[in-house]
Amino acid sequence: MKSIKNVPNCITIIRIFASVSLLLVKPFSAFFFFFYFMCGVSDVLDGYIARKMDVSSKFGQVLDSIADLIFISIVLLIFIPIINFPLWIICWIVVIAVVRLLSIIFGFARYHQLAFLHTYANKVTGIVLFFFPFLFSVFGKEITAIIICCIASISAAEELLINLTSKTLYRDRGSIFSK
Asked: pLDDT for 14-45, tens place per residue?
């Protein structure tokens, strides 16, 4: 049973390695999209398998959030210099990152553990971030960045508000409106 319990965490670790692999290949190449796709599939599979097999754990939830943070950080590190966003979009991304960092700090201060939340808004943010390269080719960089930054701003603010106001840590809280 112990080996079955580790399957979702192993999938999450694959996402971490695939994320780091993005740094080693040419952006937008076939290898890049292979690793990028692995990141997206593993992000969906780890939680799905953990819930289906009833092997969800606090460790797995935190590992999943850390893997997401690594993936998003690496993708931003790759995309921002290549795509040459306007300064105001870069500033907006920095503000979102600061709000996320404040949420982590306040959550840790309140609950004495990493308080990454799996809200619906965070899930939507993850989905639109994953589809960035495809949206970019359809809508262009500014419209795509505005859409993603709006959604990410809402989810970052919501997570911060939850971490500031909630008495207990519940990582799977759907939204600020749910208990």
From this structure: 999 999 999 999 998 999 999 999 999 998 88
Q: What are phi and psi of 171, to 5 degrees?
A: -65, -30
Contact (Cβ atoms closer than 8 angstroms) between residue 32 and residue 25: yes
Dump pLDDT digits (tens) for 113-151. Answer: 988 898 999 989 988 988 988 898 899 989 999 999 999
DSSP the chain: -HHHHTHHHHHHHHHHHHHHHGGGS-TTSHHHHHHHHHHHHHHHHHHHHHHHTT---HHHHHHHHHHHHHHHHHHHHHHHHHHT--HHHHHHHHHHHHHHHHHHHHHHHHHSS------HHHHHHHHHHHTHHHHHHHH-HHHHHHHHHHHHHHHHHHHHHHHHH-SS--TT---TT--
Angle between helices 87-111 and 141-165 (to 10 degrees): 20
What tokens appear for 113 in the block?
């553990």
